[in-house]
Amino acid sequence: MTKYSNKKCRFVILISGRGSNMQELIKTCNSDNWPAEISAVISNNPKAAGLDWANNNYINSTYLDSSKYSNRDDFDRDLSIEIDKYSPDYILLAGFMRILGCSFVRKYYGKLINIHPSLLPAFPGLDTHGRAISSGVRIHGCTVHFVSPELDSGPIIAQGYVNVFSKDTVEILSERVLEIEHKVFPSVAHWLTLNEVILDKDDKVSILNNHNGLFYL
Ligand code: GAR
């Protein structure tokens, strides 16, 4: 897709729960008239609150219940079949809490974009806010990155920084981080629609048009 083609950039969004990042992506896409369409929202959890929001907002949405699968490969295969119906340019992991297998990640390498609630490579995995508080760091935040097979790794596109204060609880810090997540992810998605994020053959990311990959509250 070139920057000047009439073709809209197609996104599929994967979620597992609340879906606040998904909502920000969809709302910003619509209000700012991006040359993009959200082709589908897919959840691995049938009870994800984000699915209700998507349905209420007339977004094409579905689920594949990962708890019904006894092995990862079968789930990944069915997820891939569902995703391929839409031929997306990018697949946005917006609070998708299921680990994707190597073959799946390799198949979509360069198209899979994740948001993680820490400044990677610090705090991959779960309980990022609790671990940030316990470790005494003064800066925390979120990372939007291309997904590679190793958990919570891959070429970084943008990061959002927040302060950590001595009186912070996990709840307070997670709210602060979520606020910056809601700035970073829509910005990156917008750059993607304009073909302004380049991943080269050496896995280096360039952002065109002088966009700044650092965000602050
Ligand atoms: C967000 O904080 C996101 O960064 C995190 O889950 C939350 C989902 O919130 N993702 C991960 O931890 C992925 N490893 P949301 O459903 O309201 O967007």
From TrEMBL:
The record marks 152 as: Raises pKa of active site His. The gene is purN. N(1)-(5-phospho-beta-D-ribosyl)glycinamide binds at residues 19-21. The keyword Transferase applies. Pfam families: Formyl_trans_N (PF00551). Pathway: Purine metabolism; IMP biosynthesis via de novo pathway; N(2)-formyl-N(1)-(5-phospho-D-ribosyl)glycinamide from N(1)-(5-phospho-D-ribosyl)glycinamide (10-formyl THF route): step 1/1. Its EC number is 2.1.2.2. It comes from Candidatus Kinetoplastidibacterium blastocrithidiae TCC012E. (6R)-10-formyltetrahydrofolate binds at residues 72, 97-100, 114. Belongs to the GART family. PANTHER family: PHOSPHORIBOSYLGLYCINAMIDE FORMYLTRANSFERASE (PTHR43369). Residues 10-188 form the Formyl transferase N-terminal domain. It is an enzyme of class 2 (transferase). Catalyzes the transfer of a formyl group from 10-formyltetrahydrofolate to 5-phospho-ribosyl-glycinamide (GAR), producing 5-phospho-ribosyl-N-formylglycinamide (FGAR) and tetrahydrofolate. GO terms for biological process: 'de novo' IMP biosynthetic process. This is Phosphoribosylglycinamide formyltransferase.
